[in-house]
Predict the structure.
Amino acid sequence: MKFETKLLHGGISEDPYTGATSIPIYMASTFHQTKIGESKYEYSRSGNPTREAVEALIADLEGGTQGFAFASGSAAIDTVFSMFSAGDDFIVGNDVYGGTFRLINTVLKRFGMTFTVVDTRDLAAVEAAIKPTTKAIYLETPTNPLLRVTDIKAVADLARDHGLLSIIDNTFSSPYVQRPLELGVDIVLHSASKYLGGHSDVIAGVVVTKDTKLGDKIGYLQNAIGGILAPQESWLLQRGMKTLAIRMQAHLANAKAVFNYLSDQPAVAKIYYPGDPNNPDYEVAKKTDASRYGAMISFELQSGLDPKKFVENLKVITLAESLGALESLIEIPALMTHGAIPRDIRLKDGIKDELIRLSVGIEDEKDLLADLDRGFKAVQRS
């Protein structure tokens, strides 16, 4: 099946008990066992029909064999790292989500894990960072919030050559744009609250693997740790995923229009967008799909212009954390999503105070551009 068809008919697309085309919300904590050890479901932390349906669907969409749904993207990341032990080292991209930075530096390091931070676009630097204790390479691509693009296949090949696992956060792209497992990556994860859910109504995370032994390890930890996605949220996530393709088409078209608009604004000092031919990562981004560069755009205002005034004067674009929703969402990373990162580290990584991150939604293009005009007029009046 093609991707668009898999969204509707992939995974478990109808209830095996009733034939319902919408998998019911099985609000059960436990299940009747007719014989000990022979029941398909025992306890909803270990397995639930509604969660199983969304897990099967994301596995299909990412080209994997096993999918796992969690209570949040952070829970998914934490469970993946729980496969490892004290003393293990990880190579991590230098431009990761602030919540991932927080998890690494305030939780995982306390458990004896070590992390070597590099720009994963630089393969020589990645290889040079490998130690005898290194177990995995963890990265985002495109990154959050500077939208840097790493050559996924090259990193996956490098990891395999050195006996390491490759782990990619695919939140910013969604499987509509890129499918890292098909490029050799071992583990793909998402904050499913974003493009997969798409409607700002669910907090969820997912993990997908192709190797069954690796999947079995994650499945064991999902049950042991217990950060599972509840039935109601599983149903919402699956419902949202069914419209991913049609939503992404509108997201991507609007993003190109917004990029073209921002390119002509004198108040903009720099734009971060993988589809920009002047972007140093443009050729790498084209390897994924020359017509799909995602719908995230970050841009810096000229020095002296107030990003708070810009975002607080918008009327259509919503000032909020998160991304990948139907509605356009805008935020200031330094004050919001990346506020947990110390300023000196943030500035070293290129996340300036004037940086604004925009998740382009599916509103009418003209309304979006008119709203951005409103923001620029507000900062230029000050």
In short: The first strand starts at residue 66 and ends at 70. The chain has 13 helices and twelve strands.
